[in-house]
Amino acid sequence: MNVWQVLNGEVEPGEHVALIDYDGHHQATATAETLADGGLRVHVVTSSLFVGSDLGPSQDLYLSRQRLLQRGVTFTTDFAVMEIKGTEIHGFNVYSNEWDVLGPYDTVVTAMGNDAHDSLYFALKGKVPELYRVGDCVAPRKVDMAILEGYAAGKRV
Hints:
Blueprint: H1 3-7, E1 16-21, H2 26-37, E2 41-45, H3 61-70, E3 74-76, E4 79-85, E5 88-93, E6 99-102, E7 107-111, H4 119-124, H5 143-156
Helix pairs in contact: 2-3
């Protein structure tokens, strides 16, 4: 399952959850916090040096890690996930190239990749005099791109 299915309540994760963080932002860390707050045991796996590795510019890397540790969340970093087999995660350490199997877990949740949310744009296209695509309507990215595109669209209006 993915983080959006968990956060929207579409699925019920089991007691012991592995969360694969290939997002590096709040998508993964907030989901891990939510699961841990629900009393679940959470283990975050990432190929990066830190869980939430892209949170540095927002000044939330330290605080996010602190909140996760206070909730008992555990981490495996530097681990490239190559396959999810049932409730086991198969991959290797990105520095030593040693293969390993993590798990088993009751549930594996992924924080990786998103889809563009462009249905409203296409529903309005040709029906309004001016229409611009910005942010996740164009492609799933971080908020800085949405702000930049929104600024550019605002200048055109």
